[in-house]
């Protein structure tokens, strides 16, 4: 009899557990997911564009003037450097060995100059006292010998100076003051010296004031007036509103490269690039970051009606 009641009881227990699971799963959540924050445009009539943050000096791509192994890295990302400070060093041991020989050649040339110089000076003094003691031809020959030895010394010094300049080129210095924005090299890594900076070894930029390069669609470019009021908003936090100062407009329309990601966005248009700036202070804004920029403009329909 006990076995007869066990199976129905298990079935009833399983049904109760299933009902409880359904009720628990369908109960309203205690916390609601926060939606994407939105904000109202700051102007009644405006032109909107995407702006990318740049250093006020421009993003300076630093490469290696020569190929070789990185033996010293003097900076880290985020360091502030002054103009003239060393950034990194390329191995120059082969040139250092040549410098030893070049110094020896200079000393040798200096020693080789002593005899012909003394002979010429002695002959010149004799000729001044009594021209009959030494012929003018002999005096001229000794002058030529001294000049030839001086030329050899000058050549040795020039070769030494050239080697010293080559050694100095292996240490790259900052040409402007600023912040190290990016560092793409490692100690002991072999780097290529090239004029192409598609992948710079180091990125440097002035951080006292930041620039925003705004892409304005060519269809709205005619509405933008120089020195018009403009503000930028940080994506993800519309509460951070940044007043912008107009700097200049580049008078050349370029293909659009900075995208907003919106489904209605067209990528086959060209844009007018306008540069604004702002004080960085303690703002959580970084070089390379995208900002939403709004520029005050006349209403589209009002302007068209005036034409």
Give the topology.
Elements lengths: L1 H24 L20 E10 L4 E3 L5 E6 L6 E2 L4 E5 L2 H37 L6 H34 L1 E3 L4 E6 L6 E2 L10 E4 L3 E9 L12 E5 L2 E13 L4 E2 L14 E10 L10 E7 L3 H7 L1
Antiparallel strand pairs: 1-10, 1-15, 2-9, 3-5, 3-8, 4-7, 5-6, 7-9, 10-14, 11-12, 11-15, 12-14, 13-14
Helix pairs in contact: 2-3
In short:
By secondary structure, the protein is α+β, with helices and mostly antiparallel strands. The protein is built from 4 helices and 15 strands.
How does this structure look, described?
The protein is of the alpha+beta class and 307 residues long. It has three domains: 46-56 and 208-306, Efflux pump adaptor protein, beta barrel domain (Elongation Factor Tu (Ef-tu), domain 3), CATH 2.40.30; 64-90 and 172-197, OB fold (Dihydrolipoamide Acetyltransferase, E2P) (Beta Barrel); 93-169, Helix Hairpins, CATH 1.10.287.470. Helix content is 33%, strand content 28%. The protein has four helices and 15 strands. The chain has a six-stranded antiparallel beta barrel. Helix 2 (93-129) packs antiparallel against helix 3. The chain is elongated and about 145 Å long. Mean pLDDT is 84; it is low at 303-307.
